[in-house]
Every structure is written in structure tokens, then in C-alpha cells.
Write a structure and sequence with these properties.
- Strand 2 and strand 3 form a beta hairpin.
- The chain has helices spanning 14-18, 21-33, 44-51, 57-63, 78-85, 95-107; strands spanning 39-41, 69-71, 74-76, 110-112, 118-120.
- By secondary structure, the chain is an alpha+beta fold.
- The chain contains six helices and five strands, in the order ααβααββααββ.
- It folds into two domains: 13-79; 85-120, no CATH class.
- A three-stranded antiparallel beta sheet has the order 1-3-2, covered by helices on one side. Strands 4-5 form a two-stranded antiparallel sheet.
């Protein structure tokens, strides 16, 4: 069973509080169901069944437009990496972080140049997400 950090300050976050109950539940579900690289397999049927909701893909992408990226048949949550592993995760030597980075490279979200430098291959939806 994977264990994750959770942000106890979310209950004071204006963005989170502005969501209706269905969307708050969906956000928690996405965070709990993504892999350690921040990728969640798209399945509206499973998501809606498990959350007792009837949210469309269009609604999901609009509500979470600054939080998720549709990437082939996955939803990618960039903030997940920054929150779980810190803003300097690209230079981390921790085994769990290196494994998550490998997932991101395998999915094509990150690329490594000849000098070993890692860069994102897609624009991040939130301009406040920055690697240090």
C-alpha cells in the first residue's frame, strides 16, 4: 500500500474550499489514485462510481485546468511531484524520487539531455510550479 503526504492546510485553501463537495472528493480521489509519478489512468466510469458522482471529462478538465494535464489516456498532476518530493526533486538522490522521475521519463513528461539535465517536455499548467 502506497503512503502519501497530505496537505492538512487544504481545508483553509481558497481554491479547495471554492470547489463543491463532488469536486473536492474527486480531487482527493485523483491524488490517492495516481502513481508515484503523478499519473492517474483516465476512467470516468471508475472515478464516478467510486465517488458517487456524474462528472464529465469536460467538467473535470475545466474545474482542474490549473491542476491536471490530460496526457494521452492519463491525467497528470504536476503539483503532486512538487508536493510529495519538494521543488528540487529533479536533483534528488532519494530512491523513491528517482523511481518517480523514471516514471515521468518513461511517460515522456521529462527528458534528460546528454549532460544529465532533466527538463519538462510539456508546459506546466500552474505558473507557480518551479523547479529549483
Amino acid at each position: 500500500m502506497a503512503k502519501r503526504f497530505t496537505d492538512t492546510e487544504k481545508w483553509k485553501d481558497e481554491w479547495y474550499l471554492s470547489l463543491n463537495n463532488d469536486y473536492r472528493q474527486i480531487w482527493l480521489w485523483l491524488l490517492d489514485n495516481c502513481n508515484h509519478g503523478g499519473f492517474c489512468k483516465q476512467s470516468l466510469k471508475l472515478m464516478n462510481m467510486m465517488n458517487n458522482t456524474s462528472i464529465t471529462k469536460e467538467e473535470l478538465l475545466e474545474v482542474f485546468k490549473d491542476r491536471i494535464v490530460e496526457y494521452y489516456d492519463y491525467w497528470f498532476i504536476p503539483k503532486f511531484m512538487f508536493f510529495q518530493y519538494g521543488n528540487n526533486f529533479l536533483t534528488s538522490n532519494q530512491k523513491a524520487v528517482k523511481s518517480a522521475i523514471k516514471v515521468m521519463i518513461d511517460f515522456g513528461i521529462l527528458q534528460e539531455d546528454l549532460n544529465g539535465e532533466l527538463t519538462f517536455t510539456i508546459p506546466l499548467p500552474n505558473p507557480y510550479l518551479r523547479v529549483h
